[in-house]
Amino acid sequence: MYERILIPTDGSETSEEAVEHALDLAEKYGAAVHALYVVDTNAMSLSLGGEQLDRIEQGQYGEMQEVRERAERATGYVADRAGERGIETVEHVSAGRPHSMIANYIDDNDIDLVVMGSHGRSGVRRALLGSVTERTLRSTRVPVLVIDADEAE
User: Fold this and answer.
1) Contact 40/94 with Cβ under 8 angstroms?
2) Worst-scoring range by mean pLDDT, 17-21, 93-97, 110-114?
3) Do 68 and 124 form a contact (C-beta atoms < 8 A)?
4) What is the SS3 string spanning 2-57?
5) H/E element holding 67?
């Protein structure tokens, strides 16, 4: 049923809980997992100059140690946990609008299922920004399993 499961991760506790659910499914179906970390260029655009933002969007993180380390830590967690179970893993880092990059990755890699955490935004913040999870649900036609932030705690 599932051959390739995408785990978009930001390294948060909720994302880590989603990893466990995804790995259980991958084990059951003999699927490979793809760990995707998206550097949110919209969130960074206010604090970085145009030149730095361009480098990030082109995948040039070499000089941006903090960004690179955060991405490697997040996808590495998935790879380590999957490795413990003998599950094949692909790690990928991209930059852009998270929901768009997730949708592109799904299309480009023939993903069958997405497993991701919900960060539980509410009220005004949710209305103004929307959540990556909600936008991903609207941007793709593959099944998306959402692990609730409250449930993960």
Assistant:
1) no
2) 93-97
3) no
4) CCEEEEECCCCHHHHHHHHHHHHHHHHHCCEEEEEEEEEHHHHCCCCCHHHHHHHH
5) helix 65-84
HEC assignment per residue over 83-100: HHCCCCEEEEEEEECHHH
Most confident segment among 35-44, 100-109, 121-130: 100-109
Give the tens place of pLDDT for each residue, 59-79: 555 556 777 898 999 999 999
Pair 58, 96: CB distance under 8 Å: no
- pTM above the 0.85 mark? no
Tokens of residue 69, six digits: 């380390």
* CB burial of residue 50 (10 Å; 0-12, 13-18, 19+): exposed
- Yes or no: say if 129 and 31 are a contact pair by the CB < 8 Å rule: no
Maximum distance among all Cα pairs of the chain, rounded to whole angstroms = 46
